[in-house]
Amino acid sequence: MKGVILAAGKGERLRPLTDDRPKVVLKVANRPIIEYILENLDPFVDEFVVITRYKKEKLIEVLGDEFNGKPITYVDQLPGDGTAKAIESAKEHVGDEEFIVANGDIYIEEDGIKELVAAFRREKADAALLVKHFDDLSHLGKIEVEESSVKRVVEKPGKVPGYANLGVYIFKPEVFEFIEKTSLSERGEYEITDTLNLMLNAGKRVVYAVYSGYWNDIGRPWNLLELNEYLLKTKLRHEIRGTVEEGAVLIPPVEVGEGTVIRSGAYIIGPVKIGKNSRIGPNCFIRPYTSIGDNCHIGNAVEVKNSIIMDNSNAPHLNYVGDSIIGENCNLGAGTITANLRHDRGSIKVEIKGKLEDSGRHKLGAIIGHGVKTGINVSIYPGRKIGSGSLIGPGVVVTKNIPPQTTVILRQELEVRKL
């Protein structure tokens, strides 16, 4: 059986982190998001078919031509948007057997895939999908069920409880006949949920499996922090492959990669994950649920808490990074501070595709793209975004979002008088 991974999306809601790369290659707990779904599909498939479009070269560079010894075939998505069109793109590659489909930007455990495969085979179904119960389906597709079968799929039914579609399916090849009959939705996309309704109307047997484990649909920046916390809390092992100097304190679990040096005076409270060839300390404080990538520098008098710092980025001295995401190849000047709490302790809103969205979090710091440099004594308001490639001059207070490839400087007038 082949595993089809949908990875063509731009990830607009995750900008600036997706300014120059597809969202599925963003690292959480120091691994690309897509690797987690590949890993959990791996026991059930013999080959992967990855549907690509946006910045596909970056995806191919990250994944290569195989995963755990199983080949990866990259296929450009056919013209048109939507999950049905993405799945149709795999038609020539899946053969005449059933196949698994999963969105490349979700996290789900292997147990969920196992339950889905079992239900599909036990019920001798034409299609199967994984569902989970939620109290609010405002942003999800509702799956109406009767006994072991799906009755109907309703997109975003409002603030009602019920089973939600999790974005993992099994199909027989005949699904392509129904995809060809699928019309554009109100959103201007070809939706696989509409295809499923066509199958149901034609009397095809569509079944479901209920998943009770952890699931994350990674659509907003704060979802990366949620997944990072979950992975560090549940999957991390205490393992030191680098060097820890005398006088450093590590409270397990802390994972330290090869070539990394933890200098004297560093105080690290796990769970914390640190990649390869990084320099940590001296005299810094790294708090729980922090992941630090490869070739990073966290220096003197720096505090990092509940954050993601991606590869080749530095917070060298006198910085506070709290509940924040720092992209690759960034450098924070001395005294750069990320604020992560409103004075009124209200939840923090973030601009997503031109509209303010409530993150639901009372603590959320900066979302900084790739290749960003800040000068000394820069302060960043909670929930603000700095676009990739931007330069923030000394003393700037970042009160609003900064577009990519932008230079921001503070103008001041000096008056010099003789004593």
Mean pLDDT figure: 93
- The outline comes out as globular
SS-based class: alpha/beta
Using the CA coordinates, give the radius of gyration: 23 Å
Structure description:
The protein is of the alpha/beta class. The chain folds into 2 domains: 2-219, Spore Coat Polysaccharide Biosynthesis Protein SpsA, Chain A (Alpha-Beta Complex); 222-408, 3 Solenoid (UDP N-Acetylglucosamine Acyltransferase, domain 1), CATH 2.160.10.10. Helix content is 16%, strand content 33%. The chain is built from 7 helices and 41 strands. Strands 1, 4, 5, 6, 7, 9, 10, 11, 12 and 13 form a 10-stranded mixed β-sheet that branches. An 8-stranded parallel β-sheet has the order 15-18-21-24-27-30-35-38. The chain has a 5-stranded parallel β-sheet with strand order 16-19-22-25-28, with no helix packed on it. Strand 10 and strand 11 (149-155) form a beta hairpin. The radius of gyration is 23 Å and the shape is globular. The termini are far apart. 49% of the residues are buried. The mean pLDDT is 93.
